[in-house]
């Protein structure tokens, strides 16, 4: 059996999974809870999600801790080499997040951020893993599992 696929979530994707009881972001959390994938975030994402939840939805702060625990998130202590991505991303927060994803050897980068990530074709070409929405990840995950079972 191959190692679990590693999916790095940025703050937008993680928040959507906590906020909504359905949808692709929530399904990623459920896959982590079922130990089917290894969800990964960085310390910077953890700090951002804490700030976002405290300011936008403080009533779900307890759910945040519970989701992170149940979904078996790996919290990377890798800070990321900013020089690697600063030419691609001008916003320092996003550069830190992508640098951490690059240095933690993930298989997929999950985001809902169209402005800084998804609509940047040059960035897509520059990174060594696919990047997409939670729905895109789920399609990729299904396809990858089918390929593994067909070849295994």
Keyphrases for this structure?
152 residues, alpha/beta, 8 helices, 55% helix
Structure description:
By secondary structure, the protein is α/β, with parallel strands linked by helices. It is built from 8 helices and 5 strands. It has helices spanning 11-19, 24-33, 43-56, 61-70, 92-103, 114-118, 121-126, 134-151; strands spanning 5-9, 37-42, 74-76, 108-110, 131-132. It has a 5-stranded parallel β-sheet.
Topology:
Layout: E1 5-9, H1 11-19, H2 24-33, E2 37-42, H3 43-56, H4 61-70, E3 74-76, H5 92-103, E4 108-110, H6 114-118, H7 121-126, E5 131-132, H8 134-151
Parallel strand pairs: 1-2, 1-4, 2-3, 4-5
Helix pairs in contact: 1-2, 1-3, 2-8
Q: Bin the strand percentage.
A: 5-15%
Mean pLDDT: 91
Compressed to H and E, one letter per element, the order equals EHHEHHEHEHHEH
What is the helix tally?
8
- Largest β sheet strand count, sense and barrel closure: 5 strands, parallel
Oligomeric nature of the chains: single chain
Shape: globular
What structural category characterises the helix and strand content? alpha/beta
Task: Using the CA coordinates, give the radius of gyration.
Answer: 15 Å
Determine the fraction of residues in helical runs and give it as a percent range: 55-70%
Low-confidence stretches: none
In whole angstroms, the N-to-C terminal distance is 9 Å
Short description:
This protein is α/β, with parallel strands linked by helices and 152 residues long.
